[in-house]
Write a structure and sequence with these properties.
With 90 residues, the protein is α/β, with parallel strands linked by helices. It has helices at 10-19, 33-46, 68-80; strands at residues 3-7, 57-61, 86-89. 41% of the residues lie in helices and 16% in strands. A three-stranded parallel beta sheet has the order 1-2-3, with helices on one face.
Length: 90
């Protein structure tokens, strides 16, 4: 098993959250940009990061479009290794 952890900064996460459309029951349109940013920052402040499942961990910087070929190559490389590598894809 390989853990793939996708990460970006809190401001970008808040921006992406506001651009999404969720079920109306979530009442997202009632939140201001500031309220969304504050909520994302609060979650980020207590977020522990990757699950650390004890196996290989690939960290993908999602502040830019994901390069699927690069991620696939890193996974293939990791599978060919000893299985305990931690690799950052920045």
């Amino acid at each position: 098993m390989i853990e793939v952890h996708c990460d970006c900064d809190a401001a970008l996460a808040a921006e992406r959250f506001q651009a999404r459309t969720r079920h109306p029951g979530h009442l997202d349109p009632q939140l201001s940009s500031q309220q969304v940013a504050e909520r994302v920052a609060a979650i980020r402040a207590t977020y522990p990061g990757p699950l650390d499942l004890g196996g290989p961990l690939l960290i993908v910087d999602t502040s830019r479009p994901a390069d699927i070929a690069e991620i696939s190559a890193k996974i293939a490389h990791t599978l060919g290794g000893n299985g305990n590598e931690h690799t950052a894809l920045l």
